Amino acid sequence: MGRAPCCDKANVKRGPWSPEEDAKLKEYIEKSGTGGNWIALPQKAGLKRCGKSCRLRWLNYLRPNIKHGEFSDDEDRIICSLFATIGSRWSIIAAQLPGRTDNDIKNYWNTKLKKKLMGVFPPPQRKSLQISSVLQASSSSPSSSTSTSSYQGSNSSYYSTPASSFTGLEPISFTSSLLSSNYSTNAAAQLLHAHHSYQVKDHNLLFFGSDQAASCSSSDGSSSSLNEYGAAADLQNCFYNGVEGNQRFMISNGGDFNTWIENPLDYYGPEEIKRLISTGSCNNNSLYFDEHKTEETLQTQYF
DNA sequence: AAGTAGGTCAACCGCTTGGAG
DNA sequence: CCTCCAAGCGGTTGACCTACT
């Protein structure tokens, strides 16, 4: 037995709204307000529509100060940053963008912005995924990592994003000094980790992950990065940074493991990266690896 | 010019949340 | 507390439009 319908489907009009219906709804709400009761509103307004439908039409289209049309680069940045930190909480994201509706932002993300971001990642490089060495690495200097793809120096090949327009993944200013200085990656990781929430806000940082998973890895082996958060924990501090026009990623658990990588695809298959983008942040636990997934299965997963 | 594929976006569906009784 | 119900929310659908063959 299903849930009772919110209205009598047989007696309500569905589908696109006509200009006349729009006018009726707008006029009624401007004159009388919603009265805090959307269910009763259509009848009062003389509309043969479901209350839900009226609410949606008002909120997404008729409400004053609704902004339609192209999203600005700034709006793109805000959406990307927020999506990376809170996931698909469209209403919260919409609250940060005056005039935009959650529906608008959701559509924009699903149809344009997501693809824009996906375009940043080039076709997969099929390298072996040495996850165990990654997990065990306690690199205090970039070159000490056992990983073949940790930061090696400025002559490495990085992704680069078009300088002319926003790709959704842009350099963050203050990390440039960190990356080009003598900071160990560990120190940089700690610093970044400690301040990530500010960076999201102030430095357009695209940040995957949260404090929630910050204790996933510890040197005493009490837990590992492949715990219940799985790849989410592993990716929790996957930063996308810019160094003089180049980009590289940092993978860190905020504690004893961290490393710079040139290419996230060295560690995560293209599908994982795409999945991370398409499913949202780690916060909502939408990204899982099997807790018991072994190195072997990880190694073979993408190849 | 016609057919097809892909993209966009308004609207719907159904689950979750929170307040009232 | 518990139940009920309306609002809110995110995912999905489908009509329409445009580009491509």
From TrEMBL:
MF terms (GO), sorted A to Z: DNA binding
Domain Myb-like: 9-62, 63-113
Signal peptide boundaries: none
Keyword Transcription: yes
Domain HTH myb-type: 9-62, 63-117
Pfam families given in the database record: Myb_DNA-binding
Main location: nucleus
Domain of life: Eukaryota
SMART domains: SANT
Keyword Acetylation belongs to the record: no
Gene Ontology cellular component terms for the protein in this record: nucleus
Subcellular location, record wording: Nucleus
SUPFAM superfamilies: Homeodomain-like
Keywords: DNA-binding, Nucleus, Repeat, Transcription, Transcription regulation
PANTHER family: MYB-LIKE DNA-BINDING DOMAIN CONTAINING PROTEIN, EXPRESSED (PTHR48000:SF67), OS09G0431300 PROTEIN (PTHR48000)
Name by which UniProt lists this protein: Uncharacterized protein
Native organism: Carpinus fangiana
